[in-house]
C-alpha cells in the first residue's frame, strides 16, 4: 500500500470514532498547552526583564545601600535598613580615589519620598514623575541619550544651579507646540529652568522611563534634604578588558570611603547588568524545569491513554484486520495504519496545545505588559515529543494488530 492510502484509511478510522479520538487528543492538548503556555509567558517576561534591567550603561557596576531586587518587609529588608546611608561626602571621597582609574563616576539619588509633579502655565504632569539628583555622568550610567539642549555640568553641581534635564514625556505634556529649553517650570514646590531634553527611551516593566527630571545633586539635597538619603554610585571602566580590575579597585575605594576595617564585611551592595540578568535567568530556569516536569507527567498520562484507546480499537476491528489480510494486506501495512492513527491523534493534540499555549502565554505576558513572543524552539520540541509519544505508545497496539492471524481474526466475533 502507498503511504497516502495508509493515511487516508487511518483518518477514515479516526473519523468513525470522533468523540473517542477527540477525548484522547485532549490529553495531549492539555500536556502541550501547559508547557507551551508557561514557556511562552516566561520567555516574554524574561525578554522584558533583561531589557528592563539594562538600566546601567556598558561596562558599569554600581554600589548602593540596597540590592536591586530586595523585597519589601521581612528580616532581609530590616538588614539593609539598618545599614548606614552612603553619604554625599563618602561618594565624593570615592570619586577622588577612583580618579584616573575609571572613565566616569556617577553619583545619584532619587526622590521616592515625595510626589514629582511638574507645572507650566497651569498645565500639570501626572504626580508620579521620577525626580533624580545627579552629575553629568547620569546619562551614561543609566543608558539615556540627550535629545537636544545640554547636559548637567560640573559647574551646575558645584554652584547648586536650579536647572533640569527632562524626559520626553514631560516635553510632550507641558510643551506640545514649543521648545522647553530656557523655560521655567515648577516641580514639587520649587522652580527650575530646563536646559536639556532626553531622547525617548520607552518603557521598562510596563513603566515609562521618559517621565524623569534630573537636577544637580547638590540642588536636590538643598531642596529635598540630604540627611535621610543614600547615594548610589555607578562606575564605568575604560573598556571590557579593564572592567574586573576597575571593579576590584572600586570595591577597595568604597571600603576606604566607608571607613571599613580589613576584617569587616562590605556594608554596601554591588551589582551590574550581567549580575542582575544572571539572577533572573536562574529563576526562570528553575520555573522552566518545574513546568517541564509537570508537563512531561501529563504527556506520559496522555500517551497511556493513547495506548489504551488503540488497544481497544484493535480489539474492535479484529475482523476488519482479518478481512484486509485475507485480501493481501501485509503486516507492515497494518502496523503503519495503526501507528499513523496514533501519531495523528498525538500531533493533532500537540498542534492544538501549541496554539492555545501561545495564546494563553502571550495573554499573560500582555497582562503583565511584557513583549509578545512565539517560542519556535519549544513549539518544534513539542511536535517532536508528540511524534515520539504517538510512536512510542502506539507501537505495541499496532504491533498486536499486525501480528494477528487472518484466520483467527476472521473467526472473531
Protein architecture, described:
With 413 residues, this protein is an alpha+beta fold. It has two domains: 3-52 and 278-411, no CATH class; 60-271, no CATH class. It has 14 helices and 14 strands. The strands form two sheets. Strands 1, 2, 3, 4, 5, 6, 7, 8, 9, 12, 13 and 14 form a twelve-stranded mixed β-sheet that branches. A two-stranded antiparallel sheet has the order 10-11. A hairpin with a 2-residue loop joins β3 (118-120) and β4 (123-124). The longest helix is centred in the C-terminal third of the chain and has 44 residues, at 273-316. The chain is elongated, with a radius of gyration of 33 Å. It starts with a helix and ends with a helix.
Concise summary:
This protein has 413 residues and is of the alpha+beta class. It has 14 helices and 14 strands.
Task: Summarize the topology.
Blueprint: H1 3-16, H2 18-52, E1 60-64, H3 74-81, H4 88-97, E2 104-110, E3 118-120, E4 123-124, E5 130-134, H5 138-141, E6 146-149, H6 154-158, E7 163-166, H7 168-174, E8 184-187, E9 190-198, E10 203-204, E11 207-208, E12 212-216, H8 217-224, E13 232-236, H9 243-257, E14 269-272, H10 273-316, H11 318-326, H12 331-367, H13 376-402, H14 406-411
Parallel strand pairs: 5-12, 7-9
Antiparallel strand pairs: 1-13, 1-14, 2-5, 2-13, 3-4, 3-8, 6-9, 7-12, 8-9, 10-11
Helix pairs in contact: 1-12, 2-10, 2-12, 2-13, 4-9, 10-12, 10-13, 12-13
Amino acid at each position: 500500500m502507498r503511504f497516502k492510502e495508509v493515511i487516508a484509511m487511518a483518518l477514515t478510522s479516526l473519523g468513525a470514532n470522533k468523540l473517542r479520538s477527540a477525548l484522547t487528543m485532549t490529553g495531549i492538548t492539555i500536556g502541550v498547552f501547559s508547557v507551551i503556555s508557561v514557556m511562552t509567558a516566561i520567555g516574554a517576561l524574561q525578554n522584558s526583564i533583561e531589557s528592563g534591567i539594562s538600566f546601567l550603561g556598558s561596562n558599569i557596576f554600581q554600589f548602593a545601600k540596597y540590592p536591586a531586587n530586595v523585597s519589601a518587609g521581612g528580616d532581609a529588608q530590616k538588614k539593609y535598613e539598618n545599614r548606614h546611608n552612603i553619604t554625599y561626602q563618602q561618594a565624593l571621597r570615592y570619586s577622588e580615589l577612583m580618579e584616573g582609574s575609571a572613565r566616569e563616576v556617577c553619583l545619584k539619588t532619587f526622590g521616592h519620598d515625595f510626589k514629582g509633579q511638574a507645572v507650566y502655565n497651569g498645565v500639570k504632569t501626572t504626580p508620579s514623575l521620577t525626580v533624580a539628583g545627579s552629575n553629568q555622568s547620569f546619562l551614561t550610567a543609566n543608558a539615556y541619550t540627550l535629545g537636544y539642549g545640554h547636559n548637567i555640568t560640573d559647574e551646575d553641581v558645584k554652584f547648586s544651579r536650579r536647572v533640569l534635564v527632562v524626559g520626553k514625556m514631560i516635553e510632550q505634556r507641558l510643551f506640545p507646540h514649543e521648545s522647553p529649553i530656557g523655560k521655567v517650570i515648577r516641580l514639587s514646590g520649587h522652580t527650575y529652568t530646563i536646559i536639556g531634553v532626553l531622547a525617548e527611551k520607552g518603557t521598562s516593566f510596563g513603566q515609562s522611563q521618559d517621565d524623569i527630571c534630573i537636577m544637580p545633586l547638590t540642588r536636590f539635597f538643598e531642596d529635598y534634604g540630604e540627611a535621610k538619603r543614600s547615594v548610589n554610585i555607578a562606575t564605568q571602566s575604560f573598556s571590557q578588558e579593564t572592567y574586573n580590575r576597575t571593579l576590584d579597585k572600586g570595591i577597595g575605594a568604597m571600603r576606604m570611603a566607608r571607613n571599613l576595617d580589613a576584617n569587616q564585611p562590605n556594608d554596601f551592595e554591588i551589582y551590574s547588568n550581567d549580575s542582575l540578568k544572571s539572577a533572573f535567568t536562574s529563576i526562570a530556569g528553575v520555573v522552566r524545569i518545574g513546568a517541564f516536569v509537570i508537563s512531561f507527567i501529563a504527556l506520559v498520562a496522555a500517551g497511556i491513554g493513547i495506548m489504551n484507546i488503540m488497544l481497544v480499537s484493535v480489539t474492535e476491528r479484529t475482523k476488519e484486520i482479518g478481512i484486509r489480510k485475507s485480501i493481501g494486506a501485509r503486516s507492515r501495512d497494518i502496523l503503519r495504519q495503526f501507528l499513523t492513527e496514533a501519531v495523528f491523534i498525538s500531533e493533532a493534540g500537540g498542534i492544538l496545545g501549541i496554539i492555545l499555549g501561545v495564546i494563553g502565554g502571550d495573554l499573560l505576558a500582555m497582562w503583565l505588559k511584557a513583549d509578545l513572543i512565539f517560542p519556535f524552539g519549544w513549539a518544534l520540541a513539542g511536535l517532536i515529543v508528540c511524534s515520539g509519544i504517538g510512536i512510542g505508545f502506539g507501537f505495541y497496539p499496532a504491533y498486536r494488530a499486525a501480528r494477528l492471524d487472518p484466520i483467527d481474526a476472521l473467526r472473531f466475533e
